[in-house]
Design a protein that fits this description.
The structure holds 2 protein chains of 2 kinds.
Chain A: H1 4-19, E1 32-35, E2 40-42, E3 47-53, H2 55-58, E4 68-72, E5 75-76, E6 82-84, E7 89-94, E8 104-110, E9 114-121, E10 124-126, E11 133-141, E12 147-154, E13 164-170, E14 187-190, E15 199-207, E16 210-213, E17 217-219, E18 225-226, E19 231-237, E20 244-249, E21 259-267, E22 274-275, E23 287-290, E24 298-307, E25 321-324, E26 336-345, E27 348-355, H3 360-363, E28 369-376, E29 385-389, E30 393-399, E31 403-411, E32 414-415, E33 419-423, E34 433-440, E35 443-449, E36 457-464, E37 474-479, E38 484-487, E39 495-504, E40 507-508, E41 512-517, E42 530-534, E43 539-542, H4 548-551, E44 557-564, E45 570-574, E46 580-583, E47 591-600, E48 603-606, E49 610-613, H5 621-649
Parallel strand pairs in A: 2-10, 11-18
Antiparallel strand pairs in A: 1-3, 3-7, 4-5, 4-8, 6-7, 8-9, 11-12, 12-14, 13-15, 15-16, 15-17, 19-20, 20-23, 21-22, 21-24, 24-25, 26-27, 27-30, 28-29, 28-31, 31-32, 31-33, 34-35, 35-38, 36-37, 36-39, 39-40, 39-41, 42-43, 43-46, 44-45, 44-47, 47-48, 47-49
Chain B: H1 33-39, H2 66-92, H3 100-103, H4 122-150, H5 155-183, H6 201-230
Helix pairs in contact in B: 2-5, 2-6, 4-5, 4-6
The chains are: A mainly beta, B mainly alpha.
Keywords (chain B): Cytokine, Secreted
Organism (chain B): Pardalotus punctatus
GO molecular function (chain B): cytokine activity; growth factor activity; leukemia inhibitory factor receptor binding
Chain lengths: ~650, ~230
């Protein structure tokens, strides 16, 4: 109410008055008051305050209402807003409280033109609460027997005042204690929830400027329950390999709420959930058998529940639980192929039988062994040979002939259907035509034209060629009605040898092969050229082909570049199949520098430079000069001797 | 009466005691103004009643689903009664666990008669139910108060007593609604049993045991009688 300076002044004047009661210019303490005291005003409204001087104040002389100065936060209010009601009362009016600050003080200019504070009030400006909207409630099941009801609402505009919100609820004849939010103004939780009684819930907002109530919600709390998710979910393997049985515990009594469920499952490692049709789980239960699953597969399950009539909220999904279906016999036999090694003896083969391990959804369990039978079709008297193998290959020594090989995969539930491969004595049937291999994004596409006869299936072999390691064959089966296949796992810049065999019901066609690259690059090295023979005007160059590891692509040509020290370069293109080339005509007795470049579709690489000097004389030239000279010299010597002998005889 | 009637703010239950309550609410001894108005509408014996229900307190909350709600409440009480009694016995310890028949014989206490069957008039059944559950509500209050003193650590028992009391309280509200709305009955004489206040610990335990044992018997009977009267038509 009084500023610090005013306390000192008032204290001083008090002392003065006590000590000298007749002194003029006396106290203004308790000289008046303002009404209303500490008002709370609606924002934007108008407001008038009155400063009322006490009669006793007037005895101090020359203190009248027209001397009153109104201030807001020590800023003088313009006099136009004042009105002198009478000798002792002054009013001040504000047309818009939006700009009204605090405190509002009533001051007076006393004798000596000293401004004295008479009274002060705090003014609070704000808004009445808006009607709370969008009231909604949910009952959370917290434990088996405990439920909490949380309601939320939109509190409306900021009021700039302390506004109290109360959540109220009642029955037809009972009112329950209000819920008063703590720390927030838009939510509150009741910890004592009653089911099966129609309950009215509403929000009251109250501040110094008024009160507002939301529209009431009328509901039975049992209709807004979010139950706890089913607990202790367990997954049990059944006898049938396509069924898993789930069982769980409901933590909400069926006498309180009858439940319906959603069950979802996925294959372990997969992210996509599959849901059991909701109509199958639309009733109160504690177990369910999920059917139509894959054998020997791990599934992950999760379950949620809500009130059976669909009124309320779904619980959260339960903790996930896994289970594995039991094994079933394999659904198909493995794909079989063979690699025949005839190098040692044409009459005796080393036959490497190969088969593919079944995919999990075909194996339906752990494959314990493969049963291989080999029947000699060229001689029915030969007994059937049987082998039990745990790997995916088997090597046999067989005499040249026609054989029928059968492979069965067996797991603990049973055996697969047999897979059959006919190995004829010779591949005399028609081969495929127009075999080609083209890169297709990150795969190598192999295509062919089918032979005229009916083909059961095709076997595609491929291997990566390398000068430093064996060409290890990989293979794949394609159905008889396709004429192309993509090969995966092909590395760039590597040469692959691809062979396609058509398999018929009664034989096999010969293999057609093609080489291919998924992606080519320039060679990693250039050819090393050297001279095989150098003459006066020619030189024979020789080089070795690049190894397949160095090529990085199909070599399209070689380029020879040669020149003298001060001469121009000469470029010659050579067929990639060649390993020799003769340079001519060359200048004799001249130093030449030569290098070779190998080129693929994706670039070239040069080898090291090689220098050689052509000969001064051609072949036989020296003999052609020396022999006649020697003969001429001999002739001259003979003639000389003969002359001398003739001269002596005379 | 205002369109949206909140009802008077009522003080908490004054606690059980052997007193008669002439109003439908067991919570106060003062007949509310509304009930005074309703008293003026007491039907003349033998004259057909115009049952509108609009003069009943909180009639806006007294909806057509009240019958189904009442049925569910009785079903819940019936389903949980035996468990409550068994847990009560376990928590009282000896000799109550082993001499249940001797100590918990309800012959020694007052319990409202429930002399209705499936063929009784629906109104009679509702009134009998009201008397039963008003009594039970008060008795459960006694038992809960005693167990909070005698077995404060028996959290599950106290929780079950609390839940049963809550359901009973809700049932009374629904029965009040049904009686007033359907039969214009706003006054039912209710008699309560003896209070256990001031009795020894053993007597308190025994009285609770006797009441709960009788409750188990009667609630089953009430469920059998009530369900045909309150099944969805």
């Amino acid at each position: 109410m009084f500023s610090g300076w005013n306390w000192v002044a008032c204290g001083f004047y008090l002392v003065l008055n006590i000590c000298s009661p007749d002194a003029s210019g006396g106290l203004v303490q308790s000289c008046g008051h303002i009404i209303p005291e500490s008002p709370v005003l609606p924002l934007g409204s108008n407001f008038t305050a009155l400063c009322i001087l006490n009669e006793s104040c007037l005895d101090f002389g020359n203190i009248y209402a027209n001397q009153i100065i109104w201030k807001i936060k020590n800023r003088v209010v313009p006099k136009e807003q004042y009105r002198e009601i009478n000798r002792t009362v002054s009013s001040v009016t504000f047309n818009d409280t939006s700009s009204l600050g605090t405190p509002l003080t009533c001051n007076i200019l006393a004798d000596g033109q000293i401004e004295q504070n008479i009274y002060g009030i705090t003014v609070t400006v704000g808004l009445a609460p808006e009607k709370p909207k969008n009231l909604s409630c949910i009952v959370h099941q917290v434990s088996r027997l405990t439920y909490h009801m949380t309601c939320t609402w939109d509190p409306g505009r900021h009021t700039f005042l302390d506004t109290e919100f109360r959540l109220r609820y009642c029955w037809p004849e009972d009112i329950f204690p209000d819920c008063i939010p703590k720390g927030v103004n838009n939510s509150c939780t009741f910890y004592d929830v009653h089911f099966f009684v129609n309950t009215e819930i509403w929000v009251e907002a109250t501040n110094a400027l008024g009160k507002a109530e939301s529209d009431p919600l009328v509901l039975d709390p049992v209709d807004i329950v979010k139950p706890l998710s089913p607990q202790n979910l367990s997954v049990i393997s059944e006898v049938l390999p396509t069924v898993l049985k789930l069982s769980w515990e409901n933590w909400i009594s069926h006498t309180v709420i009858r439940l319906k469920f959603n069950i979802r499952y996925r294959i372990s490692g997969d992210t996509n959930w599959i849901e059991v049709p909701s109509e199958d789980t639309a009733s109160q239960r504690t177990s369910f058998s999920v059917q139509g699953l894959r054998p020997y597969t791990e599934y992950v399950f999760s379950i949620r529940c809500m009130k059976q009539d669909g009124v309320g909220y779904w619980s959260d999904w339960s903790e996930e639980k896994s289970g594995i279906t039991t094994e079933d016999k394999p659904s198909k036999g493995p794909s079989i192929w063979r690699i025949i090694d005839v190098l040692q003896s044409p009459a005796s083969w080393t036959v490497h039988l190969l088969w593919k391990a079944l995919k999990p959804f075909e194996a339906n369990g752990v494959i314990l062994q493969y049963e291989v039978t080999v029947r000699d079709k060229s001689s029915l008297s030969n007994p059937l040979k049987k082998y039990n193998v745990t790997s995916t290959n088997h090597t046999l020594q067989l005499p040249n002939g026609t054989y029928e090989v059968t492979v069965i995969a067996r797991n603990s539930a049973g055996a697969s259907p047999p897979s059959v491969l006919l190995i004829p004595a010779s591949n005399s049937k028609a081969p495929v035509k127009d075999l080609r291999a083209l890169p297709k994004h990150d795969k190598l596409w192999v295509g062919w034209t089918a032979p005229n006869s009916y083909v059961l299936k095709y076997v595609i072999e491929w291997c990566m060629m390398s000068s430093s390691s064996d060409c290890i064959i990989e293979w794949q089966i394609a159905p008889g009605d396709v004429q192309g296949i993509d090969l995966k796992g092909i590395k760039p810049f590597k040469c692959y040898l691809i062979t396609v065999y058509p398999l018929y019901a009664d034989g096999q066609g010969s293999g057609q092969s093609v080489k291919a690259y998924l992606k080519q690059d320039r060679p990693s090295k250039g050819p090393i050229v050297q001279t095989k023979k150098v003459g006066k005007a020619e030189a024979v160059l020789t080089w070795n082909h690049l190894t397949v590891d160095e090529q990085n692509g199909f070599i399209r040509n070689y380029t020879i570049v040669y020149k003298t020290i001060d001469g121009n370069e000469t470029v010659v293109t050579v067929d990639p199949s060649k390993t020799e080339y003769t340079l001519s005509p060359l200048t004799s007795d001249t130093l030449y520098t030569v290098r070779m470049m190998a080129s693929t579709d994706n670039g070239s690489r040069s080898g090291p430079d090689f220098t050689f000097t052509t000969q001064k004389f051609g072949k036989g030239e020296i003999e052609a000069i020396v022999v006649p000279v020697c003969l001429a010299f001999l002739l001259i010597v003979l003639l000389g001797v003969l002359f001398c002998f003739n001269k002596r005889d005379l | 009466l205002r369109q949206r009637q909140r009802g008077p703010h009522r003080p908490p239950s004054p606690g059980p005691g052997p007193h008669r309550d002439t109003g439908l609410s067991p919570h106060t001894g003062v007949v509310p103004f509304v009930a005074l108005l309703l008293l003026q509408r007491r039907p003349v014996a033998g004259r057909a009643l115009l049952v509108t229900g609009s003069g009943c307190p909180g009639h806006g909350l007294c909806r057509s689903n009240v019958q189904e709600q009442t049925r569910r409440q009785v079903a819940v009480l019936n389903a949980t009664a035996q468990e409550l009694f068994s847990l009560y016995l376990k928590c009282q310890g000896e000799p109550f666990s082993s001499e249940t028949d001797k100590l918990c014989n309800p012959a020694g206490i007052f319990f409202p008669a429930f002399r209705v069957n499936r063929t009784s008039e629906r109104k009679e059944v509702m009134v009998a139910m009201y008397k039963l559950f008003a009594f039970l509500n008060a008795s459960l209050g006694n038992i809960t108060r005693d167990q909070e003193e005698l077995n404060p650590m028996a959290k599950e028992l106290l929780e079950r007593l609390h839940n049963t009391t809550k359901t009973t309280r809700g049932l009374i509200s629904n029965l009040t609604c049904l009686l007033c709305k359907n039969y214009n009955i706003f006054q039912v004489d209710v008699r309560y049993g003896d209070s256990s206040k001031g009795k020894s610990a053993f007597k308190k335990k025994q009285q609770g045991c006797q009441v709960l044992r009788k409750y188990v018997q009667v609630i089953g009977q009430a469920a059998r009688v009530l369900l045909p009267h309150l099944s969805p038509s």
